[in-house]
Amino acid sequence: MALLAMEVDDMAARTTIPEPTETWTETLNVSRDRVLAAAQARRHGAAVLAHATAGRMVAAWTLDPAAVDPVTHLEQTHARGRRHLRRLLDQPHGAEVQSPMTNQLFDRLTQPADPTKRKEIDYTSIKSYTYTPRKPLRRVLDHALDHLNQIDQWHRWRRDGLVPTPTDGWAPSTVTLPEDRLPLTPTDLDAWLWRIDQAMRLLTQRAAALGQDELDWQPPDGGWPLRRVLHHVARSELLYAASFDEALPEDPAARYAEADARFSERLVASRATAGDETIVFPDPYGTFFMPREVVAGVLALERELVAQAT
Questions:
Q1: What is the pTM of this model?
Q2: How many other CB atoms sit within 10 Å of the CB of residue 11?
Q3: Angle between helix 226-241 and 186-208 (nearest 10)
Q4: According to DSSP H, which parts of 219-310 are helical?
Q5: Sign of CA dihedral 134, 137, 141, 146
Q6: What number of other Cβ atoms are within 10 A of residue 161's Cβ?
Q7: Residues spanned by the domain of 193
Q8: Residue 118 to residue 153: CA distance in whole angstroms
Q9: How far apart (Å, rounded) are the C-alpha atoms in residues 245 and 97?
């Protein structure tokens, strides 16, 4: 999924985003104030805030600096994510938090690159989902296994021309299974972490054995190269694992304010990595962005949200 990628080129053609962080901040603040005004004055205000919150959170996640080497990114993220997963045991039975993401923003970020194949998205409603303490464990494990299998399928596709057979037997984050609502005991958590550790170890080992040509091979159907897949897995593990530790407030306006604060902090910090070729900024779907492109994406989304709410 590319962070508002379909908007960035259009935005660049119509709007010049000055480089200084201070100017970016001023421009973003103007957009923030328009979002807040639209949320107060129009009947779809709650939807405007929800999608704008999701957009600024995705921007904050994207600006979390990552190692350019996908294997290193996987290893570092698993170490961070595991600490979050350990703390799931601190959550009471029945705890549930709302994800910052909305289904509409997911659709936006995963639109085809071809403009003629994109669909119109209705931002006047909200479709979202929640996490229970057990769901992040399921998602981290299933996600790692799914993409471990993808490496082998891509290898056979490239070598033998054997088109992959979909093996999606997992349930996405938008689905809460009955087992996701079961109590999480220390014994349960230890067993989950053992399975997750083994899956991530196998994925990392398999990824480390890939050559540069294998990492960057472009599937004939326009699918993701494995380099992008691996950065996506690393990003996603942390987002799942930190769903409780980094949960937003419940109040819609407070959620947007917190998302804005986290994005602003990451945007300022990104200046310190300027010129560092060992650092990249992948969005949750493995596409690399420059900070100015992230800013352009946020502005494009919020402009469209305000327009639809009119």
A1: 0.91
A2: 21
A3: 160
A4: 226-241, 252-270, 291-309
A5: positive
A6: 8
A7: 5-309
A8: 27
A9: 10
